[in-house]
Design brief:
Helix content: 10-25%
CATH architecture of the largest domain: Roll
Number of helices: 6
Strand content: 35-45%
Distance between the termini: 73 Å
Radius of gyration: 25 Å
Structural class: alpha+beta
CATH superfamily of the largest domain: DNA Polymerase III, subunit A, domain 2
Largest sheet: 9 strands, antiparallel
CATH class of the largest domain: Alpha Beta
Length: 384
Amino acid sequence: MKFRVDRDVFAEAVAWAARSLPVRPSTPVLSGLLIEATDAGLVLSSFDYETSARATLAAEVADEGKALVSGKLLADIVRSLPAKPVELTLDGARVALTCGSARFSLQTMPVEDYPTLPDMPTSAGTVKSDEFAHAVAQAVTAAGRDDMLPVLTGVRLEIDGSTISLLATDRFRLSIRELTWDPATPDSTLAALVPAKVLADTAKSLTAGSEITIALSTSGAGEGIIGFEGQVAGGVRRTTTRLLDGEFPKVRSLFPNEHLTLAKVSKPELIEAVKRVSLVAERNTAVQLAFHEGVLTLDAGTGDEAQASESIEADVSGDDLTTGFNPQYLLDGLNALDAGVVELAFTQASKPVVISGADTDDGAGGDNSPADFRYLLMPRRLLS
């Protein structure tokens, strides 16, 4: 194997493929990055039996072949190379890497021991890459992080014709984000439970191109695979991951059909007020929100401890209401919204609030409206 490649293109592709390498690989070969040189160019791959990453890029290939080297070490090396072409040659059990006057010799691992990467499933459609990445970033706000409840660490991706819905919950909050896309089959209806971290990392990493292809295979319990593919200037990026096995809770019914109290508040003002007032809130205690005649009053702290109170303007319609929320969960939802004005909708103080954008300019640069993202948050018991 021998090839010559542009340093920047190679460094970017290596970094992208190596990002999926396991921190604690179950076998040594899984820490490796597979380099394949063919007459069509280079393919760089990583795989941990759950998630695979494959980057293709152009190169001047003199001799075809394969080599498996430490992915982390290769990524560290190419990132530090001078801005000159990189030449890589396989010589027996070692790989020689040359860039200008810099020379490295890397030990290889047995290629025959490396697992076969899964094939890309059948394409389900395409979506604008920037809009998808933004939608995913909003949805994963409510995803669980408790590995003891693996179903809740995923994002449920629902496809219904030209609409994709992303739902996530950790039992204390719930997010739903909807966006349009271009399906391969106009009347397709599909659903998948995708690991939230993989989905977020993948969507964010594929924004260099204009669109992302989503490919889905859900045949067999626990054997489903979802794939994402995007074009970049240097080639193609492709990721696949196994779907989570389990029944995602039916959460859509948690959004009420009517509300008795509606409040519209400036998002920046509310965020700053929550941050200030929560400084005196003890761990796992709520910040109180009281809505009354055009004013929202926030309070935290009780008894002999430090206390804080702040009032901000609010457009309140319906019954007066006093409730409380985990301040960090509240801030997470507010920061995920694009709108400058947010709407908080209540049925009663002891029931969840539905937070959404209230103005018409979502600031995201796409065709989606503020109502496309909704965040439901459970109240916390207030200390007397």
